[in-house]
Design brief:
Layout: E1 5-10, H1 18-30, E2 36-41, H2 43-46, H3 53-69, E3 77-81, H4 87-96, H5 101-105, H6 108-117, H7 123-137, E4 143-145, H8 151-168, E5 176-178, H9 213-221, H10 238-251, H11 255-262, H12 267-293, H13 296-325
Parallel strand pairs: 1-2, 2-3, 4-5
Helix pairs in contact: 3-12, 4-7, 4-13, 7-8, 9-12, 10-12
The chain binds adenosine monophosphate and tryptophan.
Length: 328
């Protein structure tokens, strides 16, 4: 039996945090044996908002190192940079011509991001989901593992594929989003009603994968909770709930067991213990990251090999699409 294909992407911007790790990266790592995997560092998505060229390049290399350190294994998964395979931009343009404006206007992420930027908003930011649809559809993807915030975009990719197929005949496979049951939405430590986000700059908002143990502990000690006392998984108490979910995912323990463990303890104990599981959970990743980045040419060769592996697949899809549309 051939394995189903997974495709997913992540932007090389900001600092990668435990939300990205628990909601996306660790889910990818976990499924490497069961699926045929393609992971993409989406630098073309990153430039939908202003970027400093030097920083973008540095962040792209940093993210590659982090993904490899987190356990993405180049023997079992392809890792590559989006802009290295030009079919992504090419298919995005073609899909643009088939995706109604009204579908794009419904995208909640655009509404949120554009409100933050006001008149600086680029056409690329609006059109972002067409490029994401291209990423997914180029590779006959079956499954797209993402955090909760990307579900709507994957559904748009599926709708775009369906629309194209209904006009031109079977061309694209219809992808399915897969959202983790727990961890799909890790919340900000400073404000547990907001999703932990790379673009948030408050110093106590996110735990970044490269934060030192002391920084991790300090951030958790300052996490916003509530004025109640008991420590239970109660979604109506977002601060404590978020800390417990982080503890659950890093410790691998069951909820009942966790509640029993914290019975009679206070929030200071909770924060301290969450700090310890996060520090210990990230330690191997941070050590591996140091080793890997000691030789940057090694990472570059993995990335160029990755692009070489996927380029022929993307070109094959492009040839079919162009044929269908009557281009050339
Ligand atoms: P981004 O930070 O937008 O590049 O997201 C990369 C991946 O991490 C996507 O699959 C997101 O859905 C996921 N992700 C981002 N923020 C969170 C969060 N706070 N909780 C869980 N998953 C997240
Ligand atoms: N838009 C996604 C995010 O910000 C990243 C992304 C780009 C992606 N292309 C993709 C995710 C294709 C899954 C599949 O998180």
């Amino acid at each position: 039996m051939t394995k189903q294909r997974i495709f997913s992407g992540i932007q090389p911007t900001g600092n990668i945090h435990i939300g990205n790790y628990l909601g996306a990266i660790s889910q990818w790592v976990k499924r490497q044996d069961t699926y045929d995997n393609i992971f993409c560092i989406v630098d073309l998505h990153a430039i939908t908002v202003p970027q400093d060229p030097k920083v973008l390049k540095t962040k792209t290399r940093e993210l590659s190192g982090l993904l490899l350190a987190a356990g993405i294994d180049p023997k079992r998964s392809v890792l590559f940079i989006q802009s290295h395979v030009c079919a992504h931009s090419e298919l995005a343009w073609i899909l643009n011509c088939f995706i109604p404006m009204g579908w794009m206007q419904r995208m909640t992420q655009f509404k949120e991001k554009s409100q933050k930027q006001k008149e600086q908003v680029s056409t690329g930011l609006f059109d972002y989901p067409a490029l994401m649809a291209a990423d997914i559809l180029l590779y006959n993807t079956d499954v797209v593992p993402v955090g909760d915030d990307q579900k709507q975009h994957v559904e748009l990719a599926r709708d775009a594929a369906q629309r194209f197929n209904s006009i031109y005949g079977e061309t694209f496979k219809l992808p399915e989003p897969v959202i983790p049951e727990v961890g799909a939405r890790i919340m900000g430590l400073d404000d547990p009603t907001q999703k932990m986000s790379k673009s948030e700059t408050a110093s106590n908002h996110a735990i970044n994968l490269l934060d030192s143990p002391d920084v991790i502990r300090a951030k958790l000690m300052r996490a916003t909770t509530d004025s109640l006392k008991d420590i239970r998984f109660d979604e109506n108490r977002p601060g404590v709930y978020n800390l417990l979910v982080i503890y659950e995912l890093f410790s691998g323990k069951k909820r009942k067991e966790i509640e029993a463990h914290f019975a009679g303890k206070g929030y200071a104990d909770l924060k301290k213990e969450v700090g310890e599981v996060v520090v210990e959970g990230l330690r191997p990743l941070q050590e591996r990251y140091k080793e890997l980045t000691a030789d940057p040419t090694h990472i570059d060769s993995i990335l160029s090999e990755g692009a070489n592996r996927v380029r022929p697949m993307a070109e094959k899809t492009m040839a079919l699409v162009k044929e269908r549309v009557g281009l050339g």
